[in-house]
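Tokens for chain A. Residues wanted.
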């Protein structure tokens, strides 16, 4: 019997709880240490995991025996713990977006490249079991339209509701769909965007928040295809919709992205019906753990390089939201 992989968590908020649930459902892995600036938060997650508690992640990195670390802090606080962990030779599961800023993303990519670190980024749709099928179909019969909906409630975490800190709806919610569309249809050359603080979220959006309730993004793919991403922050209790429609000359396929994960439609005259077992967030973690066991960075579902490409598109969308017009990615 092989020993459990020992994980440390940096950041003990919403997503830490979700990953702890995955860990409890996966074999031969346990969380042995949890760090958060807010010790009460670290204690809450650590007590559920039976793990050690830290309010300083550097002390955790220096003092605990761990096989890998999960960086689950807000985007502005991704770079420092990532760099410190890879310097110590630890593999890292880094939550998305890769960083808040271009400069942090470049520094993270350089830190990873310089030591050949094993790092996965938490864009979990890349771990959809049927993603290779969707990408192969798009290569054989090029897509004309990719249309994503991200309509539903979400938690108004303090950093999320401030555009400067979290990148608002673009980085927090739409970037999942930008990443998935890129995984299927390739590079995006230009974007357009619009946003509005029309009151959809109601009292879910705390006073002083400056982010949009609703945004619409248009992505211009190098292939000539167009993508759209529609995001609406709605109130709890209303029906939600997380989907992606893929349309080509010979196909129309709808991908359901929560709570079930499936792709159905018609391709080349034949019915398409693809499903996945475990939710992709769990599969993404499982693939990271497999990569750690094999010592092979290539086994992760989403690399830093892929996530950094998605960040460039998301940052272009943010510039388009602020200034209007068509914005070239990377300009
Ligand atoms: N993959 C997904 O579907 C998904 C879903 C939600 C959030 N996320 C990502 O996960 C990350 C965290 O989001 P969340 O919703 O858990 O946020 P959260 O606010 O619920 O939790 C973040 C935690 O990090 C702690 N923290 C902040 N700065 C820190 C620092 N420097 N050192 C240690 N702890 C620090 C905070 O005290 C807080 O407890 C973000 O990057 C977010 O985009 C991903």
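Reply:
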């Amino acid at each position: 019997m092989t020993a459990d992989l020992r994980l440390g968590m940096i950041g003990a908020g919403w997503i830490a709880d979700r990953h702890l649930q995955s860990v409890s459902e996966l074999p031969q892995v346990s969380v042995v240490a949890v760090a958060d600036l807010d010790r009460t938060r670290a204690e809450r997650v650590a007590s559920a995991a039976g793990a050690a508690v830290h309010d300083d992640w550097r002390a955790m990195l220096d003092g605990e025996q761990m096989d890998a670390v999960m960086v689950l802090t807000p985007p502005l606080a991704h770079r420092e713990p990532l760099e410190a962990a890879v310097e110590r030779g630890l593999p890292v599961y880094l939550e998305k977006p890769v960083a808040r800023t271009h400069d942090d993303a470049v520094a993270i990519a350089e830190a990873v490249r310089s030591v050949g670190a094993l790092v996965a980024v938490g864009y979990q749709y890349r771990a959809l079991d049927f993603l290779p099928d969707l990408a192969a179909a798009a290569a054989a019969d090029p897509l004309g339209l990719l249309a994503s909906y991200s309509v539903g409630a979400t938690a108004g975490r303090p950093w999320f509701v401030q555009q400067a800190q979290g990148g608002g709806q673009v980085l927090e919610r739409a970037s999942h769909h930008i990443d998935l569309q890129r995984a299927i249809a390739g590079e995006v050359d230009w974007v357009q965007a619009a946003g509005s603080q029309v009151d959809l979220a109601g009292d879910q959006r705390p006073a002083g928040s400056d982010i949009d309730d609703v945004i619409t993004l248009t992505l211009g793919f190098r292939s000539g295809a167009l993508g759209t991403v529609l995001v609406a922050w709605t109130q709890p209790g209303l029906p939600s919709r997380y989907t992606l429609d893929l349309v080509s000359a010979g196909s129309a396929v709808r991908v359901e992205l929560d709570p079930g994960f499936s792709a159905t439609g018609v391709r080349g005259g034949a019915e398409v019906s693809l499903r996945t077992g475990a939710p992709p967030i769990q599969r993404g973690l499982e693939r990271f753990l497999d990569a750690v066991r094999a010592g092979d960075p290539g086994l992760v579902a989403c690399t830093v390089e892929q996530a950094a490409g998605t960040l460039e598109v998301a940052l272009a969308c943010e510039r388009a939201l602020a200034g209007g017009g068509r914005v070239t990615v990377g300009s």
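The chain has ten helices and 15 strands. The mean pLDDT is 97.
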